[in-house]
């Protein structure tokens, strides 16, 4: 029997899924890149490094952390969205993952990626942000800070990881609720913004508790309040904005692991199993994140997907309230 070219191609197409499934069963057979879309030193990086080290012990392959910063997180996130869906490129993302495409639309640009291009694997941490000022500053409370800001509109600076980043949105919630005008100074990530605050070239910053904790303990920075519903372990003396009467000022920086959407289901399942195992059983990871002030808050499956959808919708609304940034 002679097969025409169209029939041959159809037959080959029918067989195509078999190698993918075989690869999924054998995965991983080589190192897995964990991309962080921000410079070293920020919340994503603080979570990524001990998590990658723990995954190496379970998966038996190297998991190098690759910092691919730019455009407030867009560059690194888009690179993973476009990566081969084979499980060898993962994204350790922040809650800003959903905000950035909306910010691009507001600015009149086509988004470099959309959240629909990712498969959510699991959430690792979920931390309220903390408002920081240099210890040398005159502000010893939020009341001091707000009163000064009202006297000097636009004179007090706050930093962020870029326009519409998590740190920008958190402070925007405060400025709206307190009716104050601060000068926004965007950086390429939370790490550089924190460095500027430590050097005294920046007046204030919303930060994840992990990167901030050691500096507060050493007396270099002062924490005025947190964006959580409850006080943060390690920051027990720091009131929440809700306690201070700002009922709508509530915000969290969470970290989660994502793969490109078309990654085979067996590979997604294997990565999720490995991440669950390290989050539940790896004492080294637990100690590292606890010491960083960012305890494990693991979610997976439908629970994480629902959380991701709901949180993304809330953050997109916040970005829309900020509007276009010149």
Automatic annotation (TrEMBL):
- Signal peptide range in chain numbering: 1-22
List UniProt keywords, sorted A-Z.
Signal
Superkingdom per UniProt:
Bacteria
| Entry-linked Gene3D superfamilies | Bordetella uptake gene, domain 1 (3.40.190.150), Periplasmic binding protein-like II (3.40.190.10)
Is Signal set as a keyword in this record? yes
Q: Does the keyword Signal apply?
A: yes
Q: Which family does it belong to?
A: Belongs to the UPF0065 (bug) family.
Protein name, UniProt field:
Bug family tripartite tricarboxylate transporter substrate binding protein
* Species: Muricoccus vinaceus
């Amino acid at each position: 029997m002679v097969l025409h070219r169209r029939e041959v191609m159809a037959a080959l197409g029918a067989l195509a899924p078999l190698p993918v499934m075989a690869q999924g069963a054998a995965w991983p057979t080589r190192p897995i890149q964990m991309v962080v879309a921000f410079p070293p030193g920020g919340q994503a990086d603080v979570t990524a490094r001990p998590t990658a080290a723990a995954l190496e012990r379970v998966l038996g392959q190297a998991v190098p952390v690759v910092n691919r910063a730019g455009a407030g997180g867009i560059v690194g996130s888009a690179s993973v969205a476009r990566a081969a869906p084979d499980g060898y490129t993962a994204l350790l993302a922040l809650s800003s993952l959903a905000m950035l495409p909306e910010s691009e639309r507001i600015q009149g640009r086509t988004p470099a990626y959309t959240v629909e291009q990712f498969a959510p694997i699991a959430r690792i941490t979920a931390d309220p942000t903390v408002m920081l000022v240099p210890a040398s500053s005159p502000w010893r409370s939020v009341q001091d800070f707000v009163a000064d800001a009202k006297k000097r509109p636009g004179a007090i600076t706050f930093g962020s990881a870029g326009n519409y980043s998590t740190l920008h949105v958190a402070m925007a919630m405060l400025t709206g609720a307190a009716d104050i005008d601060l000068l926004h100074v965007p950086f390429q990530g939370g790490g550089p913004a924190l460095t500027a605050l430590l050097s005294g070239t920046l007046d204030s910053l919303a930060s994840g508790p992990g990167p901030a904790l050691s500096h507060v303990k050493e007396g270099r920075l002062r924490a005025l309040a947190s964006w959580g519903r409850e006080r943060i372990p390690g920051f027990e003396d720091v009131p929440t904005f809700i306690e201070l009467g700002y009922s709508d000022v509530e915000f969290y920086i969470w970290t989660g692991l994502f793969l490109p959407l078309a990654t085979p289901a067996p590979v997604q399942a294997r990565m999720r199993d490995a991440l669950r195992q390290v989050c539940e059983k790896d004492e080294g990871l637990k100690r590292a994140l606890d010491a960083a002030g960012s305890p494990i808050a693991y979610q997976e499956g439908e629970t994480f997907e629902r959380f991701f959808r709901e949180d993304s919708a809330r953050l997109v609304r916040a970005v829309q309230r900020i509007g276009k940034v010149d």
